[in-house]
Amino acid sequence: MDAHVTRSxxxxxxxxxxxxxxxxxxxxxxxxxxxALVRSPLDSADTRATMRAVEAYGGSVERREADGSLALDVDxxxxxxxxxxxxxDCANSGTTMRLTTATxxxxxxxxxxxxxxxxxxxxxxxxxxxxESLGGRAESTRGNGQAPLVVGGPVVGGHVEIPGDVSSQxxxxxxxxxxxxxxxxxxxxxxxxxxxxYVDITVEVLDAxxxxxxxxxxxxxxxxxxxxxPAGGEYAVPGDFSSMxxxxxxxxxxxxxxxxxxxxxxxxxxxxxxxxxxxxERMGGAIDWDRDAGEITVERSSLSGVEVGxxxxxxxxxxxxxxxxxxxxxxxITDCEHVRYKxxxxxxxxxxxxxxxxxxxxxxxxxxxxxxxETDLVGARVDGRADHRIVMALTVxxxxxxxxxxxxxxxxxxxxxxxxxxxxxxxxxxxxxx
Length: 434
Ligand SMILES: O=C(O)C1=C[C@@H](OP(=O)(O)O)[C@@H](O)[C@H](O)C1
Ligand SMILES: C=C(OP(=O)(O)O)C(=O)O
Fold this sequence. Notes:
InterPro entries: Enolpyruvate_Tfrase_dom, Enolpyruvate_Tfrase_sf, EPSP_synthase, EPSP_synthase_CS, RNA3'P_cycl/enolpyr_Trfase_a/b. The active site is at 315 (proton acceptor). Monomer. The chain is an alpha/beta fold and 434 residues long. The chain has 2 domains: 2-17 and 239-433, UDP-n-acetylglucosamine1-carboxyvinyl-transferase, Chain, CATH 3.65.10.10; 20-236, Enolpyruvate transferase domain (UDP-n-acetylglucosamine1-carboxyvinyl-transferase, Chain). The protein has 12 helices and 24 strands. The chain has helices at 20-32, 45-56, 94-104, 125-133, 169-178, 196-208, 241-254, 275-282, 317-326, 346-356, 388-398, 420-426; strands at 2-6, 12-15, 35-39, 60-66, 69-75, 88-89, 110-114, 137-140, 149-152, 158-162, 185-189, 213-215, 219-222, 234-236, 261-264, 286-290, 295-299, 307-309, 329-334, 360-363, 367-372, 381-383, 405-408, 430-433. The strands form 6 sheets. Strands 22-23-1-24 form a 4-stranded mixed beta sheet, covered by helices on one side.
């Protein structure tokens, strides 16, 4: 499916979708418990993969309505996952694969985990090594550290050493599973932790489910023998700042003079991607975040290039690169090597696709420079690389390009923001899909 975007003015009030990261964790935590009600979950292709995983391990997930909103009534497997009766397809979801690979290490048998072509090209090796060091079995069928995976246990816990600069999801996976092992898991990081705020999200969700995990001088640890159980038997998911970033960028670039963009559901949490507010402010954006109300208001303004490190906010790279292409001056995005291990290599994807739109970019291994303002962006046919974040960032860039921009692979927004195009159209964007 293609998205057709032309220069637009946007404005009005909308609501951020629920957080994908929090939703994954809440569903799996409920699975590790004897159950829980997950309120306002994100219902997307990625989170449905985690729902399937919890069911494959012996739980159940029923959709229901609670106070007018979707809720998931999860029956858990109480820390004792069954061996799935079929291959576990994690589709496009790296979070599902990493987190439930550790779940498989708790089961008394073997689980086969696979995913789509993109997910089968992403790194799993350090987590496989960690499971094996705990006494479990964890193999890549092709011997290349990538899925399909064969993983088995049960492990009782122990000490593991793991790199921190490939995926923080390896740490999240081990902490969540370690809580229900006999001995717990102690993690020593061999390299600096990238995407660190995502482990903060994990610790926050575990705390809400009555499980304690802590940072140490060397990494993280979680005691064993803990029981998951949320206060009141339920957990409410906050709004997603990674998804919000596209709406805020659209407002900063293209808000109508008479109608700013207002995004609701923006309550503070452990999400590192709330840094998009600071980035827009530093670029000269007119943005106000009422934290108490959970509302962010953004007006159109002239933006200037900025230097920003994305070590902790990898998912913001596409948004920031698109903003930089429309801003005056150079935007320098640093610490971005790990952003190459996502659904696609997002550093090269944004460099190449923005170049098609007339941007001037320079790509290094660990940084991306976008020289904006030299010429206006021009509409072009661009490849969304089957990556939801590339699709959404290029769509936003198309709002200020001369002529029509056609973004290929628009259907992939279903991974994290299924209503993205409807939301953009409701704000007045000239965008259609076919
Ligand atoms: O734990 C999570 O929910 C996520 C962690 C990040 O991945 P890495 O830790 O692999 O950088 C991020 O890119 C992804 O969108 C979601
Ligand atoms: C990389 C992402 O998610 P995952 O790692 O779960 O595929 C993402 O949402 O940008």
